[in-house]
Amino acid sequence: MPTPLLLERFQTFVTIFLGIFIEAVPFLLAGSLVSGFIEVFVSREAVLRLAPRRAALAALAGASLGMVFPVCECGVVPVTRRLYRKGMPIPLGIAFLLAAPVINPVVILSTYAAFGWGPILWGRVAFTFLIAFAVGLLFRWATPQETFAATLALQPTAEPLPPRRLALGIVAGPAVDLRAGASRALVAAGDDFLDMARYLVVGSLLAAGMQTVVPQSALLAIGAGPVTSVVAMMLLAFVLSICSTVDAFVALAFVGTFTPASILAFLVFGPMVDIKSTAMFLGVFQRRKVLYLVLLPASMVLLLGVFLNLNVGL
């Protein structure tokens, strides 16, 4: 028979998994709905016409797009995948993917409610914007536009339409009839939701397993120095996999225990990369690109947090 300790660990695992999954599902559903309507009502020609072609302008636009599409780290993934299939430039999509979970009205207001109009709020917005912009540019320089489609796990020309979508006659581009188009958009959204939900389940299972095996106290114990405090809070953000709409209130609990710079690292890095979002990235990019999406923001946030600890005293 299982020991009481194992049963307790299993109950903890299930509770954490359900908490992460249930918290993320509404945002994934919202992102899938946006993705579905983009599929039907936004043509590839419109994306190619409206999206900036210069890398710097595209990265700036992508880092700002969250104000128009206020989605968290779960909802932003299906939207980004759909826009890439429409021909969105590389830096725009990468910057949007990383910045939107923070650069949106809901998260800005929640951060204000937790920390007020102070350096944490402004630092979170500014550093998220800058890092997303920089990573977007790095992806553009490292991956030529004409070969970038090959890095997507699902390519628009190779992806077969499910039978029920064929029956409805879904094609990319604006729908002539609004009612029929909305129906088609909902079907496309359902396909996206079911496709991305499997990655969300895997990511939530991994996050719950990490939290069950590695207690928060073990991470907090290494957070005394200017470097280790930043590392500890980044690891905590990665493991906890908290939605960006509520993570400011979690970070508030560490005020007085950790330096402001390490708390800022928690608030910047967590929405960009955590366990569940990393799993969902695998539904869009090849593994090597996912590795870049994890390591580049992690390196930049770490360097920034350590610099602030050592030189600014933040």
Keyword list:
314 residues, mainly alpha
Can you tell me about this structure?
The chain is an all-alpha fold and 314 residues long. It has one domain (4-214, 276-285). Helices cover 72% and strands 0% of the residues. It has helices spanning 4-41, 44-50, 55-64, 76-85, 90-99, 105-115, 119-142, 145-148, 163-168, 178-213, 216-220, 228-240, 247-252, 260-272, 275-281, 287-312. The protein is globular and about 60 Å long. The N and C termini lie far apart (52 Å).
Oligomer: single chain
**Overall domain count:** 1
In terms of per-residue confidence, which ranges show pLDDT below 50 for 5 or more consecutive residues?
Answer: 146-151, 153-176
Radius of gyration: 20 Å
Major beta-sheet overview: none
Protein structure class: mainly alpha
The overall strand count is: 0
N-to-C span:
52 Å
How big a fraction of the residues is strand? Answer: under 5%
Rounded mean pLDDT is 79
By DSSP (H or I, 4+ residues per run), the number of helices equals 16
Helix-strand pattern, N to C? HHHHHHHHHHHHHHHH
Shape field: globular
Residue share in helix: over 70%
Question: How are the elements arranged and paired?
Answer:
Blueprint: H1 4-41, H2 44-50, H3 55-64, H4 76-85, H5 90-99, H6 105-115, H7 119-142, H8 145-148, H9 163-168, H10 178-213, H11 216-220, H12 228-240, H13 247-252, H14 260-272, H15 275-281, H16 287-312
